[in-house]
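User: Can you fold this complex?
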Amino acid sequence: MAILVCGGAGYIGSHTVWELLDHGEEIIVADNLEKGHKAALQGGKLIKGDLRDKEFVRKLFRKHDIEGVINFAAYIEVGESVQLPMKYYHNNVVLSLNILEAMAEAHTPYLVFSSTAATYGAVETSPITEDFPTIPTNPYGETKLTVEKAIKWTAQAHGLKYVILRYFNASGAHPSSKIGEDHHPETHLIPLVLQAALGKRPSIKIFGNDYPTPDGTCIRDYIHVCDLAQAHYLALQHLRSGKENTTCNLGNGLGFSVKEVIETAEKVTGLKIPQEMAPRRPGDPPALVASSDRAKSLLGWKPKYADLATIIETAWNWHKNHPNGYGDKK
Ligand code: UFG
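Assistant: Here's the predicted assembly.
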């Protein structure tokens, strides 16, 4: 039986596909390649199609023997979601509901869902545990929270088993540097900083220096993409062994400010990275740092690349070797 990886040609999806293949899993990737890259897949069967199309999704389940689903497919840009909320609802929510309905119809038992720290919103204290209130500050986080709730109700009604994983800031690249992060447009801090180091951008803009943090810039918890991938495999094993439905944060429990990320990138690359101050980006909470104790105790998750310099180094190796990403400009 196969694991269906929705959005598996994207950044976190492709690293997870690699991890699952390493464990001998049979993989089917469903991706419309709007944001994903065919070249990011190191194996598995790619089925190109749009998960917003209910018939396409139902056919996947009718044609293939699917044991479980990992759902990564989503638009992910916080800033864009504030400008174009309906774009996020129509994609992130609709495609996920299609998957849930098709799973219920086919009696597919296991779902691992890619959620986000953006479900919490502006949290005053840290680290954040899973039972903190969820009050998103942007439509991106809101759409993920909406899907989380739909999953919980579907589980109650149809016996679906699920693990929801709330990622903090996914970053880094596979240590082989064969696959990595390639978004168009790129909006994430670490790849933008490294593109500025490579001279592909004139500078890195720091979005706001008047936040209530020690240096005034936003604090985030950066987590290596391969450690996220490991957690997805463990989540699947957790469900297969009949253990309970759960929601787990995935982060390193350490917060770094935008300025600290730039300083670390300068040390890793040995290059001076030009920077300029810019206004706050709408929707950005000041600080998001995870407690991942639950993922560690319940799933047996052990991050391997927790150090920020190591995370940036793997990203740097990918960017140096692939200055144009996968070269398909999407
Ligand atoms: N930032 C800059 N300049 C830039 C880009 C980003 O100063 O050019 C800042 C942002 O304002 C933010 C921090 O760097 O304070 C990190 O920004 P990212 O865009 O890299 O990441 P976000 O924290 O906005 O969002 C990411 C994921 C979300 C996830 C969230 C959870 O994109 O999916 O982490 O923390 F929900």
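Residues 173 and 314 are 5 Å apart (CA to CA). The first strand starts at residue 2 and ends at 6.
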